[in-house]
Design goal:
5-stranded antiparallel sheet
Length: 202
Amino acid sequence: MALARALAPRPSRVWLDDPFSTLAVVVRLYLRQEVRSILKVGGASGIFVTHDQQEALAIADRVAVMRSGQIEQLASPEEIYGQPASQFIADFVTQANFLEARRRSDGWYTALGLVDESQVQPTDAIAGTLMVRQEELHLGSVNSNEKALVICDREFLGREYKYTLTHPTQGNLQVRTPTRFAIGDAVQITIKPNPPGLRVFA
């Protein structure tokens, strides 16, 4: 009701402070698109505060990610997701995996193999942490001469699964893929070829 009263006069600016946080998921998804449409039609600007990363990326034209009361990055949802300005943003928004990486003459060496220099956003660093999003990792069957990791958790997300594997030196790694595996399966994990712009944080 409060939301309806706020939008009824068709204000030029609306402040929305986590307005959907207590709603059921289906209602929440419907209302966030409905409110976005109302604001667009009315030519109003909305300042939408949320702790839900997916909600922010879905509803906003511009996203401001804040840390300790300061704006750390202000950009389009696509830029926030694809080109996060810091490891904090990469972790908070994309829930990416982070691998220790060292530059060599033939590319970046990681615990999951060598990454070609052309796949990594330009940097002067010679070592750092490589950001790899969950969907940029591949799970496959294991040959006898390959090192395997064991799937320790699985979440069904509808169109895909989210798997958790524990690497002996890199900690927990999370992978999203439509391929079905069982908890306890041994798999080979690799970085997909030609992901859209990996990032190394020094």
